[in-house]
Amino acid sequence: MLKEKIQQLAKQYADEFIGIRHHLHAHPELSYKEFETSKLVQQRLTALGIPFEIMATTGVVGLIKGKNPEKRIIALRADMDALPITEENDVPYKSQNPGVMHACGHDVHTTCLLGAAKILNELKDEWEGTVKLIFQPGEEKNPGGASLMIKDGVLENPVPQKIFALHVHPGMEAGQVSFRGGMIMASADEIYITIKGKGGHAASPHLTADTILIASHLVVSLQQIVSRNNNPFNPSVLSITSFNGGSTTNVIPSEVKLMGTFRAMNEEWRFKAHELIKEQTLTLTRMMGAEADITIDVGYPFVLNDETLHKEAWQKATAYMGEEKVAETELRMGAEDFAYYSHQLPACFFRLGAGNKEKGINSGVHTPTFNIDENAIEIGMGMMAWLAAAE
Known about the structure:
There is one protein chain. The chain is α/β, with parallel strands linked by helices. It folds into 2 domains: 272 residues, 3-Layer(aba) Sandwich (Aminopeptidase); 111 residues, 2-Layer Sandwich (Alpha-Beta Plaits), CATH 3.30.70. It is 35% helix and 25% strand. A hairpin with a 3-residue loop joins strand 1 and strand 2. The relative contact order is 0.20.
């Protein structure tokens, strides 16, 4: 049976692809600079005889044709970029690029898709349709590599009917996967505010427009936008994460800069909130004698898992792994540029268990000690292949 063959090949090739993950982890590259990672992907696809093309500078898109290749087109996606974090793990494959680390598991995602490609290619006489392999840059940074790949035509020639992607989940034990239908991750927008006023001596605040005080009021005031304007059953978060102004004890600065993020799971509320944030910022600062410049950099939309595809994927996962190994994913206010694909065609974004509490592997993503139980790679590559090949 196809399932058993995929499982057998995933087990057989697991060590090979763990080695690939080690190489990728040791050589991380930041968003839109994934040149060596892209070369490795191209080399692996070339070795397998899988044709590919380049998109969005470092993105790679391969095609594997099974029997009756026009019957159905399935896309599988992995992201390739790393984060500007200094790794603190003491492992042989520790990052060799100072200040850059695969702290979100994109090395695992790329590895799993390469592994799935090898399995699918080897079994291409045993499944029907075409599988489009999408290795994309820049998931961690606006405007999002997914949006650039879509602009370059990744969802055309041929047009996929559905798309799958996985993401490591260190809070779930390796050997498990989780799914959720509907909205599963939030939109993410970046907020940049500059407050400008008359600075002066701290001993004479009456002669100044105290930008520190104004900014402090604004930080507190902005929190009321979500708490008093949004339906409490509609998930949303506004966080000011940076407050910069002043350089000494006796001077009120003429400028203070704030930065933050706004998250939502409803597009109507999202853009209404943008207007409220701008209005409150401009009104409050003007009332207190200063001026403000505000920019809201619109980022990724929310991630939407197609309900029908979600049920299909859940059934396939339980058939592949057993019901006890498949769980429901929690809602998250984090963001993912896979959202762009999910607003274009039926999509399923699922979680791959990667933790191991007994081994002390439980650090969260985006931390300098993030790592995975590498038994997850066998599961990830096999599951990706199975979701694409099974009917």
